[in-house]
Amino acid sequence: MADYIRTRRTLRLPIWSSVVFLTLNAVLLVTFVVLSAFQSLTGALTIGIVAISIGMFGVAFYGFLTVKEIRLNRRQANFVDSVTHELKTPIASLRLYLETLSMRKLTADQRAEFYGIMQNELQRLDHLINHLLEVGRLGEIGQMGDPEDVLLKPLLNRAAELACNHHGRKIADVFHFDLDRAVIRAPRLACEMIFGNLLDNAVKYGGDSPRVDVAARVLNRGRLQVSVLDNGVGVPSDMRRKIFRLFVRGGDELHRKQSGTGLGLYIVRTLVHILRGRVSVRARADGPGSVFEITLPGTLLDDAKPPAGAGS
User: Fold this and answer.
1) Which end of the chain, C or N, has fewer beta carbons within 10 A?
2) How far apart are CA 135 and CA 129, in angstroms?
3) Is it the case that residue 238 has pLDDT exceeding 80?
């Protein structure tokens, strides 16, 4: 929540700027009156023009800060609505199934089905709570431990598996991989969070039958580019920069079809920047959907020298 805390602190800026501008205008007004009394018309006119200019700038600047705060408050309200919904839904579901289990006699198959549903709801709660906790310690996660050579293919396979399990899909029906044999030079936990959030979003916001294509290419100068293509409705051009901000989600909570908190892409962007990489989004050229591109430190995998501690 570091950026959120910093944003709250900026409330001091419009307050102090207003005080400064009002003080300057008062001083200039007094000067204007004094010069007018001594019939120094040229000096009085100059002071008057400066006072009006400063006043107009102050009003415009204060208006800009006010609009910025209104937009932040709106995003925070959407965030509270979404988190409330995300928490209430699994809790209500768990309560219903527990009451059913305690009040009715069920067959072994029915009990097994109920236990499976309850396990999925608990995982959903755990996923949300972890998201909220992760935002508060992104800086620590990005710097956690020394960078290591993380094998790309197992990393993406694991992220895809978790995303499909989360949304009740089969990985073979959703994901297609076209990857260079590569490693990412970064802390493992940061990599897992980056691609876990990105692939989960690709499945969540894909089409009715989501299809996600993941490609990875090693570039020059030790850089690796990973592209994630989904088949959803895409991101409007005016939202492509905003969606990486804290609390930002497209639309309004009352009319949105997909659940979420607006934290996933903020986590992605923050960790990518900590790792000195880049992330961007654009429209697909071959049909509906979006293309998320991430560039991170990485190299081709040398089969003769497997990376130490990279795992399989």
Assistant:
1) C
2) 10
3) yes
Instruction: Write out the DSSP string of 221-252.
Output: TTEEEEEEE--SS---GGGTTGGGSTT--SS-
* CA separation for the pair 9, 241 (Å, rounded): 23
Question: Distance between alpha carbon 84 and the CA centroid of its chain, in Å?
Answer: 18
Q: Do 263 and 144 form a contact (C-beta atoms < 8 A)?
A: no
H runs (alpha helix) in the chain: 2-9, 12-37, 41-103, 108-135, 138-142, 152-167, 171-174, 188-204, 264-274
- pLDDT beyond 60 at 251: no
The amino acid at 258? Q
- Over 70: is that where the pLDDT of 198 sits? yes
pLDDT surpassing 90 at residue 152: yes
**How far is it, in rounded angstroms, from Cα 154 to Cα 222?**
20
* Phi, psi angles (nearest 5°) of residue 251: 80, -165
Of the listed ranges 22-36, 135-149, 211-225, 266-280, the least confidently predicted one is 135-149
Please state, in angstroms and rounded to a whole number, the distance separating the CA atoms of residues 138 and 266.
10
pTM of the model: 0.60
- Give the Cα separation of 293 and 227 in Å (integer): 4
Task: Give the chain's length.
Answer: 312
Superfamily the domain 147-300 falls into: Histidine kinase-like ATPase, C-terminal domain (3.30.565.10)
Give the integer Cα–Cα distance in Å for 28 and 279.
Answer: 48
In angstroms, the Cα distances linking 75 to 9, 170, 243, 251 are 17, 34, 11, 10
Question: 264-297: per-residue pLDDT in tens?
Answer: 788 888 889 888 899 999 999 888 899 999 999 9
Quick one: tokens of 12?
Answer: 């001091």
- State how far the Cα of 246 lies from the Cα of 285, in Å rounded to an integer: 28
pLDDT of residue 115: 85
- pLDDT higher than 80, residue 14: no
CB contact at 8 A, 202 and 156: no
